Amino acid sequence: MAANGGTKAILAALFANAGIAVAKFAGFLITGSSSMLAESVHSVADTSNQGLLLLGQRTSRRRATREHPFGYGRDRYFYSFIVALMLFTLGSVFALYEGIHKVQHPEELTSPAVAIVILVVAIALEIYSFRTAIVESAKIKGDASWWGFIRQSKTPELPVVLLEDAGALFGLVFALIGVGLSVVTGEPVWDGIGTIMIGVLLGVIAIILIVEMKSLLIGEGSSERELTAITEALAADGDVERVIHIRTQYIGPDELLVAAKLAMRPGLTTAEVAAVIDGAEARVRERVPAARLMYLEPDLDRAISAPPR
């Protein structure tokens, strides 16, 4: 398949995290650092997560069936939600457990220089992955802030990879600080504290992703800007007096369902009504290409045409 922006960012994160995970596990076996172990498990979880995101992209392209007449676009939301759960359980909970254990029972690090070298190399690789995610996200972010992009994006992969990479990068910095302070002060408890910081960071990121992916999974409507554009396009014909009511919902990242009742000018023939509906659909798709499914119901404006009492 051709690598679009989301796929390119996922693949960059996949290869970076796989290499980093191997290096971190080697560092943990040599040094016994709990920060290295927490980061190793974090990288394994991230690598698995990228695999799940790619799987979601693949399964979402299945053809619609009688049982699933609107297709499988929400598979991408489902697998992104699973990714958020894995980040919380395998990343945050494990790191918190390991960090608290090492604070209560600190152990001297062996060959800490090895851990520092591995962490510095891992930071360089993670910066490459994070930069790729930023570049690809910037292409579709528009004028929204980064926080707004994460909250409003209907494409789940890029926000997930962005937050994962940010968490991984800061986690590596926390691990480096923990190991570094353990070496400088001679107190291995700092390694455990660094691990706890990693766990808290991953927990916050995971909760943000869980909330956002749950919202997408149960169904989100169009943004205010899109809704305004759709409403204006529907009413742009003089034969459409107004939009009586409208409902929208994303049934996949690139597929928006639009259902609306339109007040039509009285006296139109059936053929004219059909032509007005066709024109409205064309105008909406021109303004909002994601609006692929539309169900438009013509009606008379009861509020205007009803005789006074």
From TrEMBL:
Residues 224-292 form the Cation efflux protein cytoplasmic domain. Signal peptide: none annotated. The chain crosses the membrane at residues 9-30, 77-97, 109-130, 160-183, 189-211. The lineage of its organism: Bacteria, Bacillati, Actinomycetota, Actinomycetes, Pseudonocardiales. This is Cation diffusion facilitator family transporter. It comes from Prauserella shujinwangii. Residues 10-217 form the Cation efflux protein transmembrane domain. It comes from the Bacteria. One of its GO terms (molecular function) is monoatomic cation transmembrane transporter activity. Its main location: membrane.
